[in-house]
Amino acid sequence: MNSSPYLKYFVFACTVVVFIGGWWALADVRSNFQQFAGPVQTVAAFENVFTDAALRAQLVTGLGVTLTSILEGFLLAAVVGIPVGVVMGRYLVADLFLDPWVNAWYSIPAVAFVPLTMNWTGVSSVSTVVVAFLIAVFSIILNVYGGIKNTSKTLVDTALAYRANQFQLMFKVILPASLPNIMVGLRLGISRAIEGVIIAEMFFAAIGIGGMIDYSADHLQSATSDALIIVLAIISIILTGCFKIANRRAMAWKESQAMLRE
Length: 262
Prior knowledge:
Elements: H1 5-30, H2 39-51, H3 53-90, H4 92-106, H5 113-121, H6 125-149, H7 153-161, H8 166-204, H9 208-218, H10 222-250, H11 252-256
Helix pairs in contact: 2-3, 2-10, 3-4, 3-6, 3-8, 3-9, 4-6, 5-6, 6-8, 8-9, 8-10, 9-10
């Protein structure tokens, strides 16, 4: 059946209630053993982040640094990842040469890129951009590569039968057919870029939202740390939501062909 938006919102509200209830119960149990902020303390800390002048100024500065690093790393990954994925998917020689290296780098845990980039660029915002790029680019490459490689042979043969040249074949047949994979790669890329920036900032402990979260956790300010994580979650939801909207607009024809779910 095709669910209504009201059902979607109702289910979401139920999951929020269950999550807050579980969080509340866990905080009540663990408060006897160690500091653990519950929903009430976190909401108070969240309000304090925006009402306290010093914290608000630090948050605004941190948000600027974090968002700049995320967008720069992601855009660089998209500019590099899409062409590389297209070349790998279109040409066998490039596939054979690059595929082992791309998969090897993709399998490296995100946290391992931080000391590597520190050796290259030092402890700076440049390092966070490089980490975001390295984590995001391989997700984009692999998704674009899969879309190009698996383009229907029937589509290609039909275009060639109508005497399409290589430029027309690529931009009127292969890339449009691969657009779902490209959009998935970009969505994964922005998520991975956020992950990379926050991990790098937490290692550097003095930069952006990640640095603020790390500082709060080190000083046992768990409520403030949780409030900052909520801010980070809101940022992630907004950024990935933008890509969901872009995907629906770009892939309206595919959405209309999707099967109905029970």
